[in-house]
Known about the structure:
The chain is an alpha/beta fold. The chain has helices at about 5-15, 45-50, 60-70, 80-95, 105-120, 140, 145-150, 170-175, 200-210, 235-240, 285-300, 305-320, 345-355, 375-395; strands spanning about 25-30, 35, 40-45, 100-105, 125-130, 160-165, 180-185, 215-220, 245-250, 260-265, 325-330, 335-340, 355, 360, 365. The chain folds into two domains: about 5-55 and about 300-395, Aspartate Aminotransferase, domain 1 (Alpha-Beta Complex), CATH 3.90.1150; about 70-300, Aspartate Aminotransferase, domain 2 (3-Layer(aba) Sandwich), CATH 3.40.640.
Amino acid sequence: MTRQDEWNERYAASLMNTFGPPKAVLARGMGAHVWDVDGREYVDLFGGIAVNALGHAHPALVQAVTAQLQTLGHVSNFFATSPQVELAERLLALLGTPGKVFLSNSGTEANEAALKLTRRTGRTHVVAAEGSFHGRTMGALSLTSKEAYRRPFEPLPGDVTFVPYGDSEALAAAVTDRTAAVILEPIQGEAGVLLPPAGYLADARRITSAAGALLWLDEVQTGIGRTGRWFAHHSVPELLDSPPDLVTLAKGLGGGLPIGATLATGAAADLLEPGNHGTTFGGNPVACAAALAVLQTIVHEGLLDHVEFTGKRLADAVASAPGVTEVRAVGLMIGADLDADLGPAVVDAGRDAGYLLNSTGPHTLRFVPPLVLTDDDVDVFADAWPGILRAAGEATR
Ligand SMILES: *Cc1c(COP(=O)(O)O)cnc(C)c1O
């Protein structure tokens, strides 16, 4: 019995079975590499679901968190701390629009806060997209389209209309003067890295503005450098002039420390009033210090440019193997379709070959590695990739 087998047995006996059996039991990491409890090394092309922006054990993150915890670890929102204020200021500066920030602990919480905020418009109707993923708490789940996630928990709160993602006409038809908000991912992550047609997000801005509804972009996965920009929606010129009313962030923001942020601009920034919403841990100085270190390191290490360059290299490598029918990539957010339903088998074969991979569906893979992934990591993976696909094919035969 390996150490992993032993931990897996204890895991199964003590943790709720919400995630299925773990793919590996991991012990430590460095950069884009991790090691399991038996000492096997893996290249991490999953990044803890687009979270480990700086990879594992980045000295800047370790130093910032350690120093903050040695100074002041938690105070509650009866009090303020400087990392909290500095982070809010920094996020608004990066967004490029005046506004206000609510800090929480996860993506779903960032979306819950935004959903509650939309109710303060006096309207209750929300339009979301088919294929969307916005989180697992009841409010965020009401905006998430996947039937398998929703059905066991119905009735869900809310008055939500789902429209096909990327279809401006359908969106225009669904939005009325009863609509509080339209929520969209700039790129759908859990759906397998789906990009909307050019002009869709600009159309969404025009449609919501005309109806007096809020445009809410869920950048939980796409934000903080993932696409080679601070925010994925910054690639849309119209949104630089006429920004979204709400932007939610989480995954990459804390580099592994739990943090979520709800950014509101214009009149939306003042919709939540004292007593409307709260959190005990949100804005915790350790999580905020981590986020500040992530933002600073992205600048110091030139990671936005690095993401663009390395993302192209990785996307080319993924696309070059036989059996890959389509690759969709923006920065280090890459989806790949296969010519057969090999997704889970590829994840297993990848692990056996020393790579942490992810499939979002039967024939779709998603690569969201640390932003610090090196060219060497990509080249080593490129050599192994055709063999991983072959092994997955043989294992399912
Ligand atoms: C992951 C994700 C969420 C949920 O974040 P959690 O931290 O898991 O609650 C919400 N929206 C998008 C787009 C995501 O990718």
